[in-house]
Structures are given as structure tokens and as C-alpha cells.
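Table 4 source record.
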Amino acid sequence: MKGKFTLLLFSVTFLVFIYQIKTGVLIGLNPSDLHYEDFIIYAFFHSSSTHFAFNLAALLFLGYYLEEKIGTDKFIVLFFITTIFAGIVYVLIYPSADRLCVGLSGFIFGIVGGNIVAYKEKYRNYFLLSALFYISFTVFLIYFDIVGNIAHAAHLGGFLIGAVLEMCYEKRKEGYVLMFLTLISTIYLVIV
């Protein structure tokens, strides 16, 4: 069966959301009160039904195709690494944030970054321009702290590590120099 981990994540996140609605519990990544387990758990809780719906729709539509392309084992690794890395980037960029970071968005953006690399031959110009625009726009939003209560840093962290992981998964390395330099320079801009 294709897309097994995508469906498992969908199911677990759905059950957690039902639990969240029934109990009112919201567990997230809090930079001022960090616990190791929060770097995974935060991904399953969502701030609203809209946040939940968009993340699960993106997971189904984008995650399924990437899991099919790279295989379930690599997709599982992608989930854990992008989720943890997105959380770390959030904590580094917003160390004194007074809001919780919640949701699968870091992983979803990791899937987007992975898809851009995985399907770069098919949609070369469109994906490259989209990636450059997204990275530039997100760095702008983070720098000027525009549109509060959205974890742009986690989105960007997930996007970047998803693209880098997919580059590592690919056997052919041609054409990655420009993409890799773009990613590294963007990371530098975010950190500085």
C-alpha cells in the first residue's frame, strides 16, 4: 500500500485533534519551557480547526506523492528530521516567544521543499522561482516580525531541511549547486 505513513500521520493527527477538542488540552513547543518530547508532540496539536484542516489537506495531497517517490522509510526520516529541525529553528529565532509553536506546518513545508527537489526536472523553472520567492518572502516576514502568531521560522526551517534531505536522497547531484548555495545563504540570512 502506497502512502502508508502519510495515512498513519493523518490518522494520529486526526485523533489528537478530537482529543484536543474534547479536553481543551493544547501541547506545544514553548521556548521558555522546553522539554525534549515537545519537539515531536507539538506537531500533532493545532491552534484551530482551519490550521488543522489546511495541514491535513496538504499532508494528503503533497505527502502522498513524495512518500510514493522516495519510499516510506525515507519519508519517515523526513518527518522526524523536519519536525525536530523546524522546532529548533523556531526556538532559535524566537527564544523568548510568549506563544506556543504547534502544528504539522514545519513538516508540511519540509514536504514542499522535498517535492521541489524531487520533481525539479519536471517543473524546473516553476519550482526554482517558487522556492526563491518563498524563501525571500519568509525571511522578510521573520525579519520584520510581520503577521504575528504564525511560526514562519518553523515553516522556513522545515522547508530548507526538507529540500536538503531530498538532495541527499537523490543519486544525481547535477543542478544542486545553485539550489544548495541558495539554501545556505538563506540560512545565513535568517541566523544573522
